[in-house]
């Protein structure tokens, strides 16, 4: 079962990594990164590492990757921005980092291959999670705190990059009211809220015009797109509703006069 999981999700993670490196759109690269992280989480689970499996899903896929996506949505990076090299020499730095990371992987794999493995039971007699917790909060506590500070810095950086200077005066509620009253005085536009579809009618569909208290249809109660397409209900289709409203009005007037 372990070998089957490796040969299925190992190539998938490699393909997703190639898509991450070769992708031209930042959003697509982020999605490929999510695929790599999910495959790694499944590989951790197959190696009897439940803590790394949960951390990979919760922290990296659920928190760090979502932070990347929030930055992309706030800043608005598109395909044209991702191809522009804004930092001079970043390609050589990336190549150097990749070579160093490859050397690190080779050293780690060689130590695992040449040395006699101890085994999880002998290395961690109290369990996987307590042993990792002891290492994180004793030997590697500084690196752990630096990582948390890095995440906070990334969040603050996203807010700074997403901040936009206000070019004009902030529009208040008073300004909105004055603008509506001005439009009402000049163009006769009603200052209140538009009547929604289906009011005083027997239908609540968006293509049914609202009926005013006198039984006539309200022209502004349906979308202009539906009016332009001719998709609104014809007057004869809701004439019965108009007659019902008119009879109700006549009955109320007769009761008041009586």
What would you say this structure looks like, in words?
- It comes from Tenggerimyces flavus.
- Keywords: Cell membrane, Membrane, NAD, Oxidoreductase, Quinone, Transmembrane, Transmembrane helix.
- It is found in: Cell membrane.
- InterPro entries: NADH_UbQ/plastoQ_OxRdtase_su6, Nuo/plastoQ_OxRdtase_6_NuoJ.
- This is NADH-quinone oxidoreductase subunit J.
- 67% of the residues lie in helices and 0% in strands.
- By secondary structure, the protein is mostly helical.
- The termini are far apart.
- The chain is built from 11 helices and no strands.
- Helix 2 (26-46) runs antiparallel to helix 3.
- Among the domains are: 1-79, Four Helix Bundle (Hemerythrin (Met), subunit A); 195-257.
- The longest helix has 26 residues, at 50-75.
- The protein has helices at 2-22, 26-46, 50-75, 79-82, 90-114, 120-123, 128-136, 141-162, 173-187, 224-229, 239-257.
- The model has no long low-confidence stretch (mean pLDDT 76).
